[in-house]
Q: What sequence folds into this?
C-alpha cells in the first residue's frame, strides 16, 4: 500500500514539475517575442 502511495506521489510531483517547466518555457518564449518587436 505504501509503495503504491509513494509511486503515486512521485508521479504527481513529476507531472507538477513538467507543468512548471513548460509554463516557464512558454513565458520565456512570450517575453522573447515581445522583446523582438521592440
A:
Amino acid at each position: 500500500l505504501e509503495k503504491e502511495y509513494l509511486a503515486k506521489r512521485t508521479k504527481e510531483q513529476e507531472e507538477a514539475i513538467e507543468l512548471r517547466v513548460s509554463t516557464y518555457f512558454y513565458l520565456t518564449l512570450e517575453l522573447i517575442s515581445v522583446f523582438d518587436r521592440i
Notes: The first helix runs from residue 2 to 37. The chain has a mean pLDDT of 94. The helical segments are 2-37.
